[in-house]
Amino acid sequence: MKRYEYKAYGLNIISEMELPELMKQPEPSTNYDVQITYGELPTSVQEGREMNGIRCYEEGLSWFYASSIATYCMIQGKEIRIKEDIGAKPERVRAFLLGRALGMLMFQLGTIVMHGAVVDIDGKGIIITGKSGMGKSSLLNALVKAGHPFLTDDVVAISKGENHYRVEPAYAIRKLCYDTMERFGYNIEDVNVRDQRKDKCTLLEVNRFKEIASPLTAMYEIVAEDVEEVSIRKLKGMDKMDAFLRNGYWMHSVYKNIGLPREILKQMIQIVKSIEVYTITRPQNQFTVEDQMQGMYRTLEDVQQEMIS
Length: 309
Fold this sequence. Notes:
- The chain is α+β, with helices and mostly antiparallel strands.
- The protein is built from 8 helices and 18 strands.
- The chain is globular, with a radius of gyration of 19 Å.
């Protein structure tokens, strides 16, 4: 069977499934971190599916079922095994693989994984996070159109560099709701659309994607409230940690079952201490990405001044 070699989230990946969204390895290698395979699922997973189970998180073996698409099994942080449903659309199989499945596998590796997007502003890796529907992708789109490259628009992988934590590049796909595309003047016939769904589509944007990691500098959590204008508040102490934990990628579901390992908690504390964390409060039912973006610029100027002094 032909195999394909890729790079994503700082991982070297060898796959039986072709993944056009990912960066290809420049040269063939026998040294890889993760393999993606088709095959029979472990007995415990088969039994879980026979009982109409949809997910199970255990140390070293986790799985989930995406209805009418596939069952994904993550094994020891080294393998993702997939069993597709009959008639599953390839782009939907890949979407769950590149998002949730790889996110859960990175948990097994001890990687800190967040839900959100990352943009590079003047060499600084900035996480944009918040609950679904808060406008993460809209703010990311405004920043990308302003000339700032993005590293991910779904799963954020944080790794330890020599002198700092960094955010790893994922793949050159962004998600946009159709109303956001209309506001920004996109013509859907003119963009490279990979996956059209009911409320949003995914865009391939290689030229606006950064292929190397950025030092993690700040995180912005977006919330929508009954206010008249955008405001940005710098968080301190446990408020920073709470914001970080709130936006962990499937963190509560996974760690409710297996517990929060001490080493993971230690890493989280170190990351939170090393970065600035802000809350962006925006008005409900108003399109305010320009105000949000300008507020980010002002706070990042303050960060730069503090680093200089």
